[in-house]
Specification:
Largest sheet: 9 strands, antiparallel
Strand order of the largest sheet: 2-3-13-10-8-7-6-5-4
Shape: globular
CATH class: Alpha Beta
Order of helices and strands: EHHEEHEEEEEEEEEEH
Number of strands: 13
Number of domains: 1
Number of helices: 4
């Protein structure tokens, strides 16, 4: 099972054990990387590599999946994606800042999406991000933190939680024949992404059959529908913001890699 409790909220307190807490939270997510790939495979066929974002709603959870082949080497793609999630960003649309650089492979960041919840109400998230690298694979896992006494979140009408897995695998493009000679093999990277998202708000409570009216049940159903649609809209917003930043980082890092050759 991908998550025993998809709606669980992680909280951090001000103590000497914060780094251990960071590692524990990310370890729980990292252990589910293989399960995440299995869920991803159920959503998107192996040969569907166009990079289209696909959303799957089930109950109070929305999964977002994507599969694509990036025409760049694994090291460059991994570096670009890691930079997107951990570097400072300050635009009219969103802001990202690193709260704590725990290590070279772990970062605690805050993301602020302008008007992310509604007019004049930003969506602010504290997110733990970690990368794990091997010669032919680069894995990024992430998890939002609901409460933190050191880096408190503003009061928000909607709470948005995310667990995410991005798995990058090194691939070699099939060589093309030209004048009877194989062209130089070009490195590419397979990128599989899965994000499990959930939104809640104080009014979103499950009715108890012995105490509620038909109107209460209708209100609950409407609220549930609203949150599901809001979650999908929010995922799409994040997708466009991250994708645009990734593209810019791909170009920068590819240029740097070419200079080093």
């Amino acid at each position: 099972m991908l998550e025993p409790d998809p709606g669980s909220m992680h909280a951090l307190v001000d103590s000497a054990f914060r780094v251990k807490a960071y590692k524990w939270i990310l370890d729980q997510v990292g252990r589910k990387a293989q399960a995440a790939l299995e869920v991803h495979q159920g959503y998107i066929d192996e040969d569907e590599t166009e990079g289209e974002l696909k959303l799957f709603a089930g109950g109070c959870v929305v999964d977002a999946a994507r599969h694509r082949i990036v025409p760049m080497g694994l090291d460059a793609v991994g570096s670009a994606m890691w930079a997107t999630l951990t570097s400072s960003i300050d635009t009219d649309q969103w802001h990202v800042k690193c709260l704590e650089k725990v290590s070279e492979s772990m970062c605690y960041a805050q993301v602020d999406v302008v008007n992310g919840i509604g007019d004049d109400e930003s969506l602010v998230l504290n997110i733990l991000v970690q990368k794990v690298t091997t010669p032919d694979r680069f894995v990024i896992v992430m998890r939002t933190v609901a409460e933190d006494h050191v880096y408190p979140l503003p009061k928000q009408s909607i709470t948005f939680s995310v667990s995410g897995w991005i798995v990058l695998d090194r691939k070699t493009a099939t060589p093309q024949m030209r004048f009877g000679v194989d062209r130089t093999l070009r490195q590419t990277t397979r990128v599989r992404s899965l994000f499990r998202c959930r939104a809640t708000r104080e009014s979103h409570t499950h009715p108890v059959a012995t105490t509620v009216t038909t109107e209460d049940i209708d209100t609950y159903a409407e609220d549930k529908t609203f949150l599901s649609e809001w979650t999908m809209d929010t995922i799409i917003t994040f997708f466009h913001l991250i994708d645009a930043t990734n593209t810019a980082n791909f170009e920068k890092i590819e240029a740097l890699f070419k200079q080093k050759r």
